[in-house]
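TASK: fixed-backbone design
INPUT:
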């Protein structure tokens, strides 16, 4: 696969295998679960059989994962500036939810009294990555500027190249500065916008802009709202493919009541983590082909808590209204965000880990 995340074919294989394994274990022990069904507190539920969770390290851990540093830059300058492009029609509440997640990354956004685990704690793992000078990825992330393209300037279907043209328009019309050093240009498309390979092969992707298209080389990411197009692919586990019927935990209730948007937030997290540690596709990744790198989000795709793997998302929390989450953000927000690979523990890690 080239330059994309959340491979559709990979998910199909995982879900198919998971449905067979989980169906068999459920029949043998119908009380097995990985979901915290108590009020919003941590406790130690029954985890998947040890055949699925044989290590005390987080699922996904392996000494065989060859994640290496390729001498390129990471986003170490502080703060990391997010330049948001809202493509299509977005409601104010949708924008606020996404912005609350992004601004929850910085430690200053989460007061000491805020519940743990937090989004800021999650980003600590991302900040463990360094460049060749020893400088860490910045822990401070801010939304520097926003631009709304409500007129669908490049139509309701975008290609990978026209995504760059949307960014070029924003830069050339001067809503956005050229920020080579610590900028991320984040384009988010509304539910009625189709994008090349969206749902079929990707839920989001990141790369850098071409000087011939934008005039500059700038790290960027695109993520789409899958709520009306393919929630069972890009908003899992808030929507579940039909072929998984009876073979998994069932769809979970999104923490903010919006399947598409809550699913989108985890993809945004995935892409921001990878862009910060591999902005020009020459820093941190596994594999020999930089055009198809396996990055810190890819290694932990589908893992949200301790005991995850083999179709299990891991232990998460559920509040009194049945909403599922694994970390807290600003303004009392709750989010379900996938884990990322830790260069220290050589395993997938998250702030809600129990072991």
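OUTPUT:
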């Amino acid at each position: 696969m080239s330059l994309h995340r959340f491979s559709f074919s990979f998910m199909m294989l995982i879900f198919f295998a998971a449905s067979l394994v989980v169906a068999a274990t459920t029949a043998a022990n119908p009380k097995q679960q990985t979901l915290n069904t108590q009020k919003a507190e941590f406790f130690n539920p029954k985890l998947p059989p040890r055949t699925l969770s044989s290590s005390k390290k987080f699922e996904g851990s392996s000494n065989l994962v060859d994640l290496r540093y390729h001498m390129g830059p990471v986003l170490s300058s502080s703060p990391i500036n997010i330049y948001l492009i809202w493509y299509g029609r977005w409601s104010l509440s949708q924008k606020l939810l996404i912005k609350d997640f992004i601004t929850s990354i910085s430690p200053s956004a989460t007061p000491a009294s805020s519940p743990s685990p937090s989004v800021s704690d999650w980003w600590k793992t991302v900040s463990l990555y360094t460049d060749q000078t020893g400088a860490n990825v910045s822990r401070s992330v801010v939304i520097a500027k926003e631009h709304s393209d409500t007129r669908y300037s490049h139509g309701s279907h975008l290609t990978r190249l026209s995504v760059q043209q949307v960014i070029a328009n924003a830069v050339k019309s001067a809503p956005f500065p050229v920020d080579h050093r610590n900028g991320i240009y984040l384009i988010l498309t509304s539910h009625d916008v189709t994008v090349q390979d969206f749902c079929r092969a990707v839920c989001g992707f990141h790369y850098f802009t071409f000087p011939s298209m934008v005039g500059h080389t700038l790290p960027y990411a695109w993520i789409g709202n899958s709520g009306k197009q393919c929630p069972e692919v890009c908003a899992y586990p808030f929507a579940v493919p039909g072929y998984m019927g009876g073979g998994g935990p069932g769809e979970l209730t999104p923490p903010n009541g919006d399947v598409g948007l809550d699913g989108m937030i985890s993809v945004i997290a995935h892409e921001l983590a990878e862009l910060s540690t591999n902005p020009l596709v020459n820093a941190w990744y596994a594999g020999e082909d930089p055009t198809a790198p396996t990055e810190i989000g890819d290694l932990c795709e589908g893992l949200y808590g301790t005991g995850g793997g083999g179709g299990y998302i891991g232990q998460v929390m559920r509040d009194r209204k049945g909403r599922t989450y694994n970390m807290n953000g600003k303004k009392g927000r709750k989010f379900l965000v996938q884990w990322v690979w830790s260069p220290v523990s050589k395993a997938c890690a998250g702030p809600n880990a129990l072991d």
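COMMENT: The helical segments are 8-28, 92-103, 119-126, 160-172, 211-214, 231-234, 259-277.
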